[in-house]
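thought: fold this chain, then report.
action: predict
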Amino acid sequence: MSPTCTHPPASATTLPRISRDVDPGRVFADLAADLARAVDPDAVAAAVESLTTVGLRMGSRESWAAWDSWSSGTGTASPPTDSARSFTLVGIREEQPGPRWQALFSATWPAYRAWYLQDGEDARPDLATARAQLTRHMPELVPTWEAMVALAGDDDVAARMLTLWDAPGFAPGCSQAAQVGGDPVMVRNYDYSPDLFEWVVYSSKFARRKVIGTSDCLWGLLDGMNDDGLVISLTHGGRQSSGPGFAIPLVVRYLLEVAGTVEEAGAALDRLPVAASYNLTMMDATGAVVTAFVSPGNEPEYTDSAVATNHRGRVPERPEHARALRSVERQDHLLALLEEPTERALLTAAFLRAPLHSQRYAQGFGTLYTAAYRPRVQQLTYSWPGTSFTRTFDSPDDSITVSLQEG
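observation:
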């Protein structure tokens, strides 16, 4: 298994396989649930060993076929799968990296390593360079990074990958909207392949602030909130350019660790080099909202837009790409929703329906979750048709199994 930070490894011929008759998503769901409930160290170890086997399978080229073909524009479906598959979202509360994070690392590292080294080890920065960039741009995260490296057995490749400096590229598709008012809310859909997703929501306190969000790249975040009430969510910006910089999930993590308001987040973002183009919609407890378009080698572009899909601004730079992802259609729909007063529950419900909600899982563009962040009450709720899962900064470890129906 591997998440948003992923493209197919260069070669998977040496990786162990599990039977084609076994649904790795179903196996992972069951094992992840067991891990979330496990207390006895031997039980945790057994679950991790089994998860590693599944992770190796999901790190193979075969498992990446759907997203690779979809992003290249061929639209080829992945190998036949059941019309409905079950997955388990695991909620972890761990202030500092510890046994839970180490179990996540052990389960996913084979796939992450294959992803990180897909172009060969020389294509990635050496440890001295990667550490120097993290220390220069995100010094507040260095102690946490060092703790994670120790838990990873001081592995050189893991240490380099965890800096997320000059990592391989990735491009999820998403929709997000921020609604201000007495109870401001940020609602977002995350659209991607279910096999390339960590299925973890992590609550931590690495430094001064508590942070909760959807995990990616082992400690980055796809979306998240801190206890000052700052909420940040990302969507891919549609531009194909790439350059030296940090993978965007770690940028989201960093901003939530060091900033308490939209203004403070913008000041921190201004000095961060990013590796690819993204939209970051940011909202704080005062109701302030901005969307920043970031791209390699350029200063962030800020607008007061409360919505973002998968292109820059209102006019896509790559019309065919935006058309394939229905990016403008989704953006227009979100803008229309926010034009009229809409109850928070109704706004969230709209994300569970077309055109915002997608069931194209075999093509790597299905809605994996709808997340609603409420900064004033410090609550995060994940929703799927017919079920939901609510977390706070202090919620105990828990999990929910959901069924994703191909459409």
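thought: worth noting. Residues 6-29, 39-81 have pLDDT under 50 and may be disordered.
final: tokens above.
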